[in-house]
Design a protein that fits this description.
The protein is of the alpha/beta class. The protein folds into two domains: 315 residues, 3-Layer(aba) Sandwich (Rossmann fold); 56 residues, Alpha-Beta Plaits. The chain has 13 helices and 17 strands. α11 runs antiparallel to α13. The longest helix is centred in the last third of the chain and has 16 residues. It is globular, with a radius of gyration of 20 Å.
């Protein structure tokens, strides 16, 4: 056993630091047991999955299934290993995510990325159904009020959360918190509007429509090409958004090269709303029934929702396993903060100040705000220690 205690702080309430298992991406020998896959298998055995998952329990493996054009998602062999380990303890796993694009198309994207029953050894489904409307509305916090949780998440007794760690234009860090906050909320809930309980509430807190600057727009149509629901129409000297179709995902705002689209938003509120949403999701489970695995591999600058994958910002760090979302996100950021920016990436040439990480520096927003907000809501503790596998 190799314990790394470099993050333990004095805790006035005498709360024991949370244990996070750390699987270093470096290998020591030409031996399967020292491979990342072999060490992940060992880590899942050591954590004892029977502490979280019961025999015959249907267990969602929640993860992002990628987008056409991207390639830096979690590798299918890792996902299959997780599914196999769940089966060994008698659980019945299925891989899932909520609608990111139209559900039928999302399943086709998942298949192209290598996520299907043949490759993973378990079913792959869309959590809010093939039409993207199957959900149950639950209470959220003071910012969001209510959210629609996809039925396949809400009805589950336990959950395994696989998060590909990467950057994000709005949250700087896209990790476990964002995986739950965005990926476990229905964009178009049945019998409700997006502003009542949909995912778009997190992006559109201060307005119901985006602002379009005609003077800046070049009608390049990149917004229309990337809209997941074909709500944007662009022709020569013509721009229109179909408000009935629009999910309010703000993807068009993020990718507009001319900054002709904008949404007035408080980024502190957005990050706080991520924590609120993650809490609403976790609260649908009994305590101790959600396990997190974070893959700090291929840490690209942007979300897996994008139709491209840019060069990683840092070298692969490894894999973290734990049952405390605040602790595992804090450990993630600490590892990223210590990593050197890579040349020939968007990190190339960025000079980091002491205590600064590449995700916050690149996106000009503090990536840890969402983690602090989650801790304030009681989702976990930031004090942790690493036990190296």
């Amino acid at each position: 056993m190799n314990c790394l205690y470099d993050h333990i702080k004095e805790n006035k309430e005498n709360i024991m630091p949370k244990k996070i298992y750390f699987i270093d991406s470096r290998v020591g020998k030409f031996d399967y047991r020292y491979s990342l896959t072999g060490k992940l298998e060992k880590g899942l055995e050591r954590i004892n999955l029977t502490n979280y998952f019961s025999k015959d329990e249907l267990v969602p493996i929640k993860m992002h299934l990628g987008n056409k054009g991207g390639h830096h998602t979690i590798r299918p062999n890792f996902v299959r290993l997780v599914a196999e380990q769940l089966k060994k303890v008698g659980a019945k796993p299925f891989v899932t995510d909520s609608s990111r694009v139209k559900p039928y198309e999302y399943l086709e994207v998942a298949n192209e990325m290598g996520y299907n029953q043949l490759s993973l050894g378990c079913p792959v489904i869309i959590a809010d159904g093939i039409f993207g409307r199957d959900s149950v509305t639950v209470k959220a916090g003071k910012l969001l009020k209510e959210l629609a949780i996809p039925s396949a998440i809400y009805d589950a007794k336990s959950m395994m959360v696989l998060s590909h760690i990467k950057g994000h234009i709005d949250s700087s860090l896209a990790g476990a918190i964002k995986n739950l906050a965005m990926g476990c909320v229905c964009p178009q809930p049945r019998n409700q509007t997006w502003k009542e309980a949909g995912r778009g509430k997190m992006h559109f807190q201060m307005t119901e429509i985006m602002a379009w600057n005609k003077e800046l727009c070049t009608y390049c149509a990149i917004c229309a090409d990337n809209c997941p629901v074909e709500a944007v129409t662009v022709r020569k000297d013509f721009f229109e958004v179909n408000e009935e179709k629009c999910w309010k995902c703000a993807r068009c705002v993020k990718i507009c090269p001319e900054k002709a689209l904008s949404v007035p938003i408080s980024h502190d509120n957005f990050l706080a709303s991520l924590a609120e949403s993650a809490k609403a999701v976790i609260d649908t489970f009994e305590p101790g029934k959600v396990l997190f695995i974070s893959f700090i591999l291929d840490v690209q600058p942007e979300c897996d929702c994008m139709a491209v994958s840019d060069n990683p910002l840092i070298q692969d760090q490894g894999i973290l396993i734990g049952d405390d979302i605040v602790a595992i996100e804090t450990a993630t950021m600490d590892l990223i903060e210590k990593a050197a920016p890579l040349p020939q990436s968007k990190a190339d040439g960025i000079k980091l100040r002491k205590g600064e990480d590449i995700l916050s520096a690149l996106h000009q927003k503090d990536a840890r705000i969402q983690i602090k907000a989650a801790e304030k809501l009681g989702l976990g503790e930031s004090d942790y220690y690493l036990e190296k596998i």
